[in-house]
């Protein structure tokens, strides 16, 4: 952690990540949060100072981010070109338009799961119509032990 702020922040309805990579983005973040004084404070004016004063700065930013909804803050940060993104729950991941469009949700058969399937996420990478992904659940404990022992001459 050598850039501040570059981390997860709580918002009124969840969490986001904010990745201010330079001093200009930090100033924009402070303006979006309605706290331009945090940008002009000498202790926080550059990343060296923000690193040194991380423990006092981050709680001040958290107090401000918690007042805004995820959608509201992300929209304002995007408008100002401050890198940020949502931190989604699994349900939110599967509701995302891009995840749906790319067919990334998997329902993997599993005897251990309630309802017989486990939700999973398929890789978004498709090359010439081919998707390099396993479409089966992780093996259960010991599921392949006999097969592996036989393969290495121990079974």
Short account of what is shown:
Strand 6 (126-127) and strand 7 (130-131) form a beta hairpin.
What can you see in these coordinates?
The protein is an alpha+beta fold and 155 residues long. It has two domains: 82 residues, formyl-coa transferase, domain 3; 62 residues, no CATH class. 39% of the residues lie in helices and 19% in strands. The chain contains eight helices and seven strands, in the order E-E-H-H-H-H-H-E-H-H-E-E-E-E-H. The protein has a three-stranded antiparallel β-sheet, covered by helices on one side. Strands 4-5 form a two-stranded antiparallel sheet. The protein has a two-stranded antiparallel sheet with strand order 6-7. The N and C termini lie far apart (48 Å). The mean pLDDT is 93.
What's the topology here?
Blueprint: E1 6-11, E2 14-19, H1 23-32, H2 36-40, H3 47-52, H4 54-65, H5 70-79, E3 84-87, H6 90-95, H7 97-101, E4 105-109, E5 117-121, E6 126-127, E7 130-131, H8 145-151
Antiparallel strand pairs: 1-2, 2-3, 4-5, 6-7
């Amino acid at each position: 952690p050598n850039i501040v702020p570059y981390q997860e922040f709580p918002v009124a309805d969840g969490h986001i990540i904010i990745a201010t990579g330079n001093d200009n983005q930090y100033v924009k973040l402070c303006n979006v949060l309605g706290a331009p004084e945090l940008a002009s404070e000498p202790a926080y004016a550059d990343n060296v100072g923000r690193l040194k004063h991380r423990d006092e700065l981050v709680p001040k930013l958290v107090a401000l981010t918690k007042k805004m909804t995820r959608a509201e803050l992300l929209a304002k940060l995007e408008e100002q070109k401050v890198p940020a993104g949502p931190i989604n729950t699994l349900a939110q991941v599967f509701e995302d338009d891009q995840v749906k469009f790319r067919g990334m949700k998997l329902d993997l058969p599993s005897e251990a799961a309630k309802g017989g399937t486990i939700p999973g996420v398929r890789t978004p990478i498709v090359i010439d119509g081919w998707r390099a992904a396993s479409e089966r659940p992780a093996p259960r404990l010991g599921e392949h032990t006999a097969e592996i022992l036989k393969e290495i001459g121990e079974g």
